[in-house]
Amino acid sequence: MSHAIYHVDAFTDSPFAGNPAAVCLITGELDDDWLQAVATEMNLSETAFVRPIPGGFELRWFTPAAEVELCGHATLAAAHVLWEQQLMGAEKPIAFKTRHRGVLHCELDAESGLIAMDFPADPPAVAEPVAGLIEALGVEPVTVLRSRYDWVVEVEDSAAVREARPNMLALMDIDARGVGLTARGGEADEADFVSRFFAPRLRIDEDAVTGSLHCVLGPYWRRMLGKDVMDAAQLSQRGGRLRVAMREGDERVALAGRAVTVTVGQLLV
């Protein structure tokens, strides 16, 4: 049996930018070892597996090393593929059933091309940095935050985010999914806030654009900036842009972006 597979650049409107993800459309339940083997073979930061179920689709995400509980850019890529391949009408929202984060809904604004994903927010708490964290990042911290999965360090400005050169071997010793850097956006950034994200434990030294990180940054920067809708830029080499809108107080966050399909193929195993 073959399975359709797509290579999609997410959180960008240009190919070869944003964060690449593989999207594999499957039918029936497949062994987890097989799913992991496919994700390792794709060797992208995330591979999304989408399976039709009553009332919507099941969605799971795998890095080359492990399954993860939430991934923004691969969710965006999956929704983009379903609408682009006309497996869903553009006027219909998509309901993705996930194993760990409930049902996630996506909506397409056909006029702007923005796909909005309704995610659970993950408000961070100010915390004392774990031993070795600041030294591994090599930055001067303004505030240190701890979320459900990650450490996030606020620094003085976007230049400090852009110029940081973390020690990836040292970050491997930090007990967390990953480590983020963030700062207020400057005029040249055309963003309210900026970020970068490092996850060497998941075999991703630097993630190009990290949707799930913005479930943390949205509530934090809403409090700091006093804005419910914010433009965000992730300052990786590929770069990417998101619109972040807080909903229901700090309970939900809508992450919106665009996506571009780069490759379409068949997985012949």
TrEMBL record:
Keyword line: Isomerase
Classification via InterPro entries: Phenazine_PhzF-like (IPR003719)
Pfam hit, one: PhzC-PhzF
Superkingdom of origin: Bacteria
Family indicated by similarity: Belongs to the PhzF family.
Protein name as it appears in the record: PhzF family phenazine biosynthesis protein
